[in-house]
Automatic annotation (TrEMBL):
<dbReference type="InterPro" id="IPR032710">
    <property type="entry name" value="NTF2-like_dom_sf"/>
</dbReference>
<feature type="signal peptide">
    <location>
        <begin position="1"/>
        <end position="19"/>
    </location>
</feature>
<protein>
    <recommendedName>
        <fullName>DUF4440 domain-containing protein</fullName>
    </recommendedName>
</protein>
<feature type="domain" description="DUF4440">
    <location>
        <begin position="31"/>
        <end position="142"/>
    </location>
</feature>
<keyword id="KW-0732">Signal</keyword>
<dbReference type="Pfam" id="PF14534">
    <property type="entry name" value="DUF4440"/>
</dbReference>
<dbReference type="InterPro" id="IPR027843">
    <property type="entry name" value="DUF4440"/>
</dbReference>
């Protein structure tokens, strides 16, 4: 009887682990798609989308160390202080936790900024980390962005 109970408990734990990992996998796919949409919204200046996906308590740390909250960061895009002509995702890794309720994203992007005054391309190569939390009412929201400039590849 004890062996049967132990086996049943192990089976239940295995099923629970599979369910959790399937929720985490589904969440990771969803967050990856949202990351790509968010980058596109930053380029297109889709303020409604940005208002929705950035949490009210967002901490956005730029690669130069400057930090913004949600209103300041979105306003910096409106004012042209944060300009993005194009954002290319080079690497993107999403790990979801807590039955698909939290996600940590890290990746590498290249941002094409407005050209330098001499007309040469202005590129920023960044490694970044994002933390997203799934709010029951608002859906996935970015609560933290942190980026670091990377050296440009020499040609």
């Amino acid at each position: 009887m004890k062996k049967l109970l132990a086996l049943a408990l192990l089976l239940l734990m295995a099923v629970a682990d599979m369910a959790q990992s399937s929720k985490d996998k589904a969440a990771a796919k969803e967050v990856e798609a949202l990351e790509r949409q968010r980058f596109e919204a930053q380029v297109k200046k889709d303020y409604a989308f940005l208002e929705k996906v950035f949490a009210d308590d967002l901490v956005y740390t730029h690669s130069n160390g400057k930090q913004n909250g949600k209103p300041d960061y979105i306003q910096s895009i409106r004012d042209g202080k944060s300009q993005y002509d194009k954002i290319d995702v080079e690497a993107l890794n999403v790990r979801a936790y807590n039955n698909g309720q939290a996600a940590v994203v890290n990746g590498t992007i290249t941002i094409t900024l407005p050209n330098n005054p001499d007309g040469t391309p202005n590129l920023a190569h960044l490694k970044y980390v994002v933390v997203q939390i799934k709010d029951p009412k608002k859906g996935w929201q970015v609560v933290l962005w942190q980026s670091q400039k990377q050296p440009q590849a020499r040609t």
